[in-house]
Design brief:
Layout (H helix, E strand, L loop, with lengths): L3 E3 L2 E3 L3 E3 L21 E3 L16 E4 L2 E4 L8 H15 L4 E6 L4 H11 L5 E7 L16 H14 L4 E5 L6 H10 L4 E4 L3 E3 L10 E4 L4 H14 L4 E4 L5 H9 L4 E4 L1 H5 L3 H10 L2
Parallel strand pairs: 3-4, 3-14, 4-7, 7-8, 8-9, 9-10, 10-13, 13-14
Antiparallel strand pairs: 1-2, 5-6, 6-12, 11-12
Helix pairs in contact: 2-3, 3-4, 4-5, 5-6
The structure holds flavin mononucleotide (FMN).
Amino acid sequence: MSAVQVFGTTFQNPILLAAGTAGFGRELDHVIDLDLLGGIVTKAVTPEPRQGHPALRVAEFRGGMLNAVGLANPGLEAVVEHELPWLAQRLRRARIIVNVAGATVADYVGVVERLTPFDAITAFEINASCPNTSAGGLEFGAEPGCLAELVGACRRVSTRPLTVKLSPVLPDIPAMARVARDAGAEAVTLVNTMPGLLDKRLGNGSGGLSGPALLPIGVLATRRVREQVGMPVIGVGGVRSVSDAREYLGAGASLVAIGTAALADPRLPVRIARELSRG
Ligand SMILES: Cc1cc2nc3c(=O)[nH]c(=O)nc-3n(C[C@H](O)[C@H](O)[C@H](O)COP(=O)(O)O)c2cc1C
């Protein structure tokens, strides 16, 4: 598999580390060579530092994992001061995509606006699965008007490409992808985790399901958006092997992100990238 052109730039291969599962790269630096990847999607960045949800934060089950991390992150200023400079000097070839989260449109806009001058950032991934406090907690990505407002507001403050990350439980994912595109997004990331509950297994109560059970769900969402909307897709959900990655690429994804499987085996994404390049 040769290099991939997306967001007006070249990714040396299509494999990314998925948002929230690799932090800002530091923890993995002594384990893998991050620069062998297509890129890294950072943990969500919010305006203020977030402690996240109480323990327990992850629970395994046979189909994968539930997590209730709660977007724990050091906050925008610490990311500007410490995380991005480190990542930018560490990476020569792998691309940086910054995942952005918030409770209001202004939260997202503040993060995107502040980070846009960083040349090292290839694109922003707008996590549209966060509850919108101004809309009674309904996810931004669940309602066309809210999604258009969010993406349009980010578009107006940034020249960088945007990819909008959508939930797998939306009734019409292609329709919401079209809304994102019409509001100025270059791509969509499909899919985020799926809401789930296992009794007394997480500090927060419910959580987000990731891992193997998401694979066919993400592949279908990718295929439908490619067929019906035609915009670029970052495929994510359940990838554990090179053949899983090929499922997304075959469905039309330009890039493929790996999360849960890389938590168990941090060397897996580089191995998959290498196997893909062997053809
Ligand atoms: C522990 C954990 C933390 C996550 N944090 C984020 C996040 O900060 N922002 C986001 O958009 N997605 C986040 N996700 C979702 C992943 O990026 C990915 O969409 C999902 O886990 C499906 O991929 P996978 O099956 O390969 O893990 C997180 C997932 C996990 C397991």
